Amino acid sequence: MDDMFQDFYALENTNGYTAANILSGFWISEKKAFENLVTTKEQDAHEFFQFLAEELHERNGDGKRPEIGSEHSCNCIIHQTFYGKMLTTTTCQNCKGTSHTVQSFLDLSLGLDSLAHKRVKKMSQKMPALALTDCLDEEYVKFDKCEYRCHNCVSSQQAKRYTSIKLLPNVLSIQLKRFEYKQGRHDRAASKIDNVVQFPLQLNMLPYTNRVRTRESRENLELERSCIYDLLSVVVHVGEIETGHYVSYCRVGDQWFKFNDHKVEMASVSDVLGAQAYLLFYIIRFLS
After folding, report:
1. 163 in the same domain as 263
2. What is the pTM of this model?
């Protein structure tokens, strides 16, 4: 990774830079996690991001595989940059007792399918536009009803479950789940969700944190300031699910660029905001 950054900034030309060494390293890796990458078939950009984070963590962290889904995290640069923590609060509807679970996360995966179906019924549109904030509201503002084994009642009870973000990462990675798999008569059929998802250049994540439910958030402007993110990069899947192609938009200062394999060209803000996003990367505006 050090060599890649040195090469990138040392070359004085405008040709697109290919991270050939790191890509070939994945290709020849003997690790089972990378077996799916060694193929001529199209691979998933989100899965590759997870593989890359895992490999960089193992090389630069404590040598252990990152425990996505557990509260434990290390102090390596990958965890400090990309990892946050999620808080799940379950409230028993019988005794009103609560339990809390904290888990680490590398990215937020937001479902589009159920929200799109709700909009179709409500607005009578074949493919209604969605907003990123709608997707976040669905996951981190609304509560789910569930059956819960209550320790106080010592029995199964109806409960309400809230999920919120306890610790925001410095770089927030969001996956819009555009690929769905439905069980057919003989096997699972894959399809792509093409709904437009509108996303902002600036994102306030305070409404999705556990602190928004406290008085502290209403009294402390610094808290809201610490939850403001700016859009840094967008990964787009173009084409069909089996024969598609990935392009990306990245911002350097105030200028956006479009990366399409070896071809790099300037892009406008409207180009970026009009893209059919699959992955979104937001960077925190103010470091705490």
Report:
1. yes
2. 0.83
